[in-house]
Design a protein that fits this description.
This is Regulator. The chain is of the alpha+beta class. The protein has a single domain (1-123), classed as 2-Layer Sandwich (Heat Shock Protein 90), CATH 3.30.565. It is built from 3 helices and 5 strands, in the order H-H-E-E-H-E-E-E. The protein has helices spanning 2-7, 12-32, 85-92; strands at 47-52, 58-64, 95-100, 106-113, 128-133. The chain is globular, with a radius of gyration of 17 Å. Residues 121-125 have low confidence and may be disordered.
Length: 153
């Protein structure tokens, strides 16, 4: 994402925000959403996409198979280990929301910034987009969680 946005002439500070937002969205999708497709757990996908439209607005989206709750900012305690992701996104972004589709997929979208182009970048593309999907866990070599907790007492 970082390299793709740089190539498009997006300002570095906006790229930093977009990468953090994408990380938060992916974390939430993995924690709270079901995988896309027919997998119940483990081997399903989530989709990430980002685009800069002709007006210079950067939008980041993550799609999963939905979950038991709707994405909403939380009010975690001071000592809580989580629950701040959507509050971070709200602070960094111009807008965000949730979109459902007929297949049960849920997309959380974020307008990172309304005018992302860096006037000092020396190059500017007027619009571009990317979409990525993670490979299934079963296709990732070296991921074996069978013995992950053997050393814990």
């Amino acid at each position: 994402m970082r390299a793709h946005l740089r190539t498009g002439g997006v300002a570095e500070t906006v790229i930093d925000d977009a990468v953090l937002i994408l990380s938060e969205l992916l974390s939430n999708a993995c924690k709270h959403g079901r995988p896309l497709g027919d997998a119940f757990s483990g081997d399903g996908d989530v989709r990430a996409a980002w685009r800069v439209d002709a007006g210079g607005r950067l939008t980041v989206e993550v799609t999963d198979g939905g979950g038991p709750t709707r994405p909403a900012p939380a009010t975690p305690s001071v000592t809580a280990h989580g629950g701040r992701g959507l509050n971070i996104i709200t602070a960094l972004a111009d807008d965000w929301g949730v979109r459902d589709d007929v297949r049960g997929e849920v997309t959380v979208w974020v307008v990172v910034h309304d005018d992302v182009h860096d006037p000092d970048a020396g190059h500017r593309r007027h619009d571009f987009a990317a979409r990525v999907a993670a490979p299934p866990v079963s296709a990732m070599a070296g991921l074996d969680f069978a013995n992950a907790f053997d050393d814990l007492d």
